[in-house]
């Protein structure tokens, strides 16, 4: 009788650990792997997880609960980015968010009150690195649960409460420090775009296999992702609107190439994992060179940056090992006529 009672609890516990891991992995990648937060600020990770972690969990759980996949999660990731940076901390509209930002910004869209390059880059960073990459890695580490929800109704409700609480806290903290509030038009406009993105995430048709062409080799897909994402980050060095044009062109070209690849009959989860690996390596080298928001790095911070980069690379290796063999051949929600 005792075993009968305890076994379901143990099973539920094993089912929840990927959700807890994603909750913490999202801010670790989004802030610490990037180098935006120094290693010495690691105690702030649980606080950042209130927004990053809960947001990634809600994206992943909502998509999987409705039988959707990567395309839906990416659109929800864009919506998340706009919620965080447009509605919560309002960085997109506050040109004094960083010291010297107003003087350095030379791609301002006056009608919208945003810096075009900064908006493009920040939205991409949250969509890819803060949400999609951690989600994909965690799903790869538990391939048997990759397409199933990890949380029940209670867990999902708790995650919503955490996300709202984290958003309110961060919004209040930023306002208390800066005193900035975006205009009503900016807030309403951002909210409308978020609603449209969420609707589009569930209305887009599932992709069908349309080509018999071979998918690229895994190493090549990863190399392309690494090169494209690294060049995307380096567009900051270009003058004026050239950086916007270059960053936009890279995004469009990458989306076109990956979409074409994804229509190949043998394109599967490990190809997406290879693309994710390329992005991880980009953040890894950035994290070793970027000056953190928290100030100059100490020796401990430098060592910590190497450790975090090493940890991320180990996760990539473990993810590839976990997805070997038949366990990855599951139906792909984005492509019901193909195999995962």
TrEMBL record:
Protein name, UniProt field: DUF998 domain-containing protein
Organism encoding this protein: Cryptosporangium aurantiacum
Origin organism lineage: Bacteria, Bacillati, Actinomycetota, Actinomycetes, Cryptosporangiales
Keyword entries, A-Z: Membrane, Transmembrane, Transmembrane helix
Record-annotated membrane-spanning stretches: 41-59, 71-88, 108-129, 150-172, 184-204, 216-234, 240-261, 273-290, 302-320
